[in-house]
């Protein structure tokens, strides 16, 4: 059995970090994924879709035929990378820079994009630092997600019965 290559420890002094400076680069562009067109004509919003799991999901949805809006905090270079990969699949990609805790911004995005699915991957995942300052962790992960849910509920309430039956929110 062949062992995995050794990856040197990496550290970035700011969070969220920049995926564009990671070495080696993460394998999250789904190059070998064989799509079946299951989301053809659908629209999705992926929060945190600029990098990591959110990037993989955004690209996967595009491969399946969905147009994708990527909602991200501030990592412009990472978001542009994801956009290029979504558009390579022949799908439209809208980049929105903002915070999921901004309910007004989320509400306007939902109203304008009219998604069938909202997937939330926006999070502060460095819990090891939370012991020294849990407020940031709570604000970003709990309060932010709560505001996103409220915006989605307002959007959902305005959908017709068929759209409600098809709508999915994956926190």
Question: Could you walk me through the main structural features you see in this protein, from its secondary elements to its overall organization?
Answer:
The protein has 5 helices and 5 strands. With 171 residues, the chain is an alpha/beta fold. Helix 1 runs parallel beside helix 2 and helix 3 packs parallel to helix 4. The radius of gyration is 17 Å and the shape is globular.
Top keywords for this entry?
single chain; 171 residues
Q: What does the secondary structure layout of this molecule look like, with pairings?
A:
Layout: E1 43-47, H1 52-63, E2 67-72, H2 76-88, E3 93-97, H3 103-113, E4 117-120, H4 134-157, H5 161-166, E5 168-170
Parallel strand pairs: 1-2, 1-4, 2-3, 4-5
Helix pairs in contact: 1-2, 3-4
Radius of gyration: 17 Å
Q: Which whole number gives the mean pLDDT? A: 87
Kindly report how far apart the N and C termini lie.
37 Å
Strand elements, count: 5
Q: Which H/E pattern describes the elements? A: EHEHEHEHHE
Assembly type of the chains comes to single chain
Proportion of residues in extended strands = 5-15%
Q: What is the overall silhouette?
A: globular
Largest pleated sheet: 5 strands, parallel
What structural class do helix, strand and pairing data support? alpha/beta
Summarize the entry for a quick read.
39% of the residues lie in helices and 13% in strands. The chain has 171 residues and is α/β, with parallel strands linked by helices.
């Amino acid at each position: 059995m062949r062992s995995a290559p050794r990856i040197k420890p990496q550290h970035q002094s700011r969070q969220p970090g920049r995926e564009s400076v990671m070495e080696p680069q993460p394998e999250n562009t789904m190059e070998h994924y064989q799509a079946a067109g299951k989301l053809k004509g659908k629209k999705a919003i992926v929060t945190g879709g600029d990098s990591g799991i959110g990037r993989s999901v955004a690209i996967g949805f595009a491969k399946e035929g969905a147009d994708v809006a990527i909602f991200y905090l501030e990592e412009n270079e990472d978001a542009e990378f994801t956009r290029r990969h979504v558009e390579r699949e022949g799908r439209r990609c809208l980049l929105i820079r903002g915070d999921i805790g901004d309910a007004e911004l989320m509400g306007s995005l939902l109203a304008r994009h009219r998604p069938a699915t909202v997937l939330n991957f926006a999070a502060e995942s460095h819990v090891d630092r939370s012991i020294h300052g849990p407020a940031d962790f709570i604000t970003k992960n709990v309060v932010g997600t709560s505001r996103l849910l409220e915006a989605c509920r307002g959007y959902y309430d305005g959908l017709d019965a068929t759209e409600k039956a098809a709508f999915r929110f994956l926190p």
